[in-house]
Amino acid sequence: MPASAITLAQISDCHLFADKNALHCGVNVYDNLKRVLTELSDNNTLDYLVFTGDLSQDHSEGSYRHFADLVRQANLKVPVYFLPGNHDDETLLNKYLTVPCFHPGKVIEHLRWQVCLLSSKGDTPAGYLSGQSLQQLKQAVNPGKSQLIFMHHHPVAVGYFIDRHGLTNADEFWQLTEKLPSVKAVACGHVHRGLTLLPENSGYPLVVHTCPATSIQFDPDSETVSALAQGPGYRLFTLNEDATVNSRVSYLEFL
Question: Which positions fall inside the Calcineurin-like phosphoesterase domain (predicted)?
Answer without folding.
Answer: 7-193
